[in-house]
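Hi! If you just cloned this repository, the fastest way to understand the data is to look at a raw example. We've pasted two of them here, unedited. The first protein comes first, obviously.
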Amino acid sequence: MSRLFGSVRARATLGATLVVAVALVAAGTALLLSLRANLTGEAGTRAERSAQAVASELAARTPFDKLSGLDAEDTPVQIVDEDGVLLAASEDLERISGTGTSEVTPAPARSDEDDRDNPDDRDNPDDRDDDRDNRDDRDDPADRDDRDDDSLDPGEIAPGASYTNGTATIDGDTEDYRFAAVEVETPDRGRLTVHAGAPLAAEHSAVGTALTAMLIGFPLLLGVVAAVTWLVTGRALRPVEGIRREMAAITASEDLRRRVPEPATHDEIARLARTTNATLAALEASVERQRAFVADASHELRSPIASLRTQLEVAAAHPELLDLDGAVEDTVRLQNLAADLLLLARLDAGERPAGTRVELAALAREEAAGRERVTVEAEPVEVTGSRGQLARVLANLLDNAERHARERITVTVYREGGEAVVGVADDGEGVAGADRERIFERFVRLDAARSRDDGGAGLGLAIARDVAVRHGGTLTAGAAPAGGALFELRLPLAGRGPGHAPGLDRP
């Protein structure tokens, strides 16, 4: 299980499925809440219309037994006074909750007809005067201005309604209802409150249907998302698996000539394959160079060692024939070759040069000292690096120039933009254009310098270029003004990293 979910394909599928699941749950919840709110609002609107209709009849002094809203089958209605006493209720209403009063049987009270049939009340002039005075008081505009904001005129219905949820049982059927309460000021009964309900069965049915559809549809949709993501991810990662298998085969066979397959696309995987092949090509070239280097080094070391051994064997048998100068020369040559090979190995290992400041003009004069044909034209220029390695570069360039110069060698040191430039020019035959890069390869000697006694092992210029590159600079070969060869070393000035653009110095 851990191996399964450790794959990119499984994690991508799981992540996509979880994201879609969270989105579906959030959207489904919002949809259900919105649907429930809308249906509940519609039920409230129906309940308010029913309550308004009953209130309008009450405002018109319709007797309770004549109210049309009390005989509706699916609309429970209650009429209560200001004291919360139930005055009238729907027919067949057996139980109710959520309206403020759970009574379903109206309280006994005298009707308006009883008041009119009572001769004492009808013939009492004081009562009629009081009623007339009360009506006059209600009709007085000044008195209306002094009333509270929630006061109503006789026959006036309060705007708006209050809503509650509850239940009602009619003819043995219990359902949930949305109740609306509307107040009305009646001319003969005072302020009454009409509670009317609208069933919420449609709301419950719609919400239940939507919830059932979601519970069935969401898992199916998540299954489709997971399957599609699994297939798409597998198809997208198929080239990666091909690259992995080929790399494993290359590692097992150690055959660096093989390459990983490159998809015919332009996406990240194709770029990965191309980069991998470029890395393999560079690694193959490096290994080939290493093999060639070992072979050439073995060949170069074999000659002085064989020569030195021969001289020592001859000297052991015939001491009078010992060529002491030749033995010393072979020993020095062997020592120099070993030092060159050690320096190349250190450079190939990525050894970074020291970060000390080196004054190139003084270094050039030191290396030119003792050389008869060398002229130095230098201005003070400082670079950062290894003084010993830079001295080795100048020494190798001067040694090369001395082997080919006729009469004169010129060393120039100057500043150009953000770089220090060291030029070593001779008046010899020069280097052909086709050979100006090849001479920097290891163990390469041109036809004019094939002799080991004169041309060395062919490592001097290779070492010089490697040191220049390690210092963030370049070493190139060109034509000197006098017609010979010109080797030009360019290094960043002190305080500037490799690749610093010239011309950005502060004034």
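Ok, and the second one:
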Amino acid sequence: MGLLAATAGVTAAELLATLTRPQAGPLVAVGSTLIDAAPTPVKEFAVRTFGTYDKPLLLGGIGLALAGLAVLTGLLARRRSAAGLGGAALLGVLGAVAALLRPGARAVDVLPSVAGALVAAGVLRWLLPRPASAAEPVVPRPGEVRPIRGPSRRALARNAALVAAGTALGVAGTGLLRGSSSRDAERSREAVRLPAPADPAAPLPDGVGPAFHTRNADFYRVDTALTVPRLDTDTWRLRIRGMVDRPLELSFADLLDRELVERDITLNCVSNEVGGPYVGTARWLGVPLAPLLRAAGIRAGADQVVARSSEGMTIGTPVETVLDGRDAMLAVGMNGEPLPLEHGFPVRMLTPGLFGYAGACKWVVDLELSTFASFDAYWVRRGWAREAPVKTASRIDRPAPFARLPAGQVVVAGVAWAQGRGIAAVEVSVDSGPWQPSTLLPVPSTDTWVQWRYQWPATPGGHSLRVRATDRTGDVQTESRTTPFPDGATGWHTIAVTVI
């Protein structure tokens, strides 16, 4: 009974949230609150171990916990109905509080959780046996066998079937509504016709290796949003406000009417371990950010741009990095097409040379000029560094770790990056021997990774390969191993192989 009642309540809550404010749904609200409250090591473990599956696993865990509590509530309710109804109310309060704790929350965000609690309580009350008649003695006489007053087995089965059917209809309705919302967002994306850039990217230089650009489908994703925001270009607006003389509000059409630039830029996630996959290069199309901020009139003392996404995430970027000549932009295109929904459609912010958590807000809807002294963005409040320049790094992509290779000439290859500074050299060491120079392939700018290759005369046996890079300022990648927290991992990527 408890499980049926809880399922009906959650379904009603999620259906109401889908009709009104999807981010107010109790599952998303509770899940997002748990993500916010989780210690940094737990977050890092989840990202490192599960990748983009961490969010579905969290929602599944919440569902299992809720199922356990629902069963317990049902058992308690059979003994004392007030306990069961109190349990339903408690779950509703938890969902409502979680919804109110979300960034950008509104008072109406409590309604889905409250409605879900009322539905769960009502269903539970309907399914519970009725209390004994007041005319009957409370304590049965010795030897008396008194049947429980309540619905017959047949009636209970009928009631349970009705609840299950209603819940199934609610689940189906929620799925249809969410599917419709996703299709609307996708149709909005498909309707976008990106204009030609006023300042196009230069063609890739001759000699660039294959897969220089990361396919959109393969580009890494690390974000806190439990569900991908579904925005459309007709209603999307961007506000530029805060410490400015002339606050601005721009539509998507306003952005496309401005002069667009096209650039090849490599992005990194600060959660990337040494040799990890959370780095990628794409050809981005967007509106330069510096002219927009200057048009708004940046007031003296403003040293931080606080970008907010549609679901409330905050990213803090130093104003100086937007104005220093790098190609910071509000991107609308990625590899020749509108941004994918998962990568920030319709608009995301990019700041070359900074880790994503400090300069690459997805689904951006608000830019506030502020100060670092007055506001800490989401990740800074959790102990990450305020300023996050990308570190000089390199990775071995071929051969794969623990590969078995034939003896003879073996191509060792990978990528290295130091956005804004560029890579001057990449070296490979075999079995901790002398560092050997690799060949660097051409690159379009210092804002992208460099592909490198090394011809290794491999001999039979087990071997270790390691790589290090030197940027154009002369900074050599450090051997010292550190974790991503609080400002990015360091160390030499090392793999083991066997030559046969």
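That's it. A detail worth noticing about the second one: The chain is about 30% helix and 25% strand.
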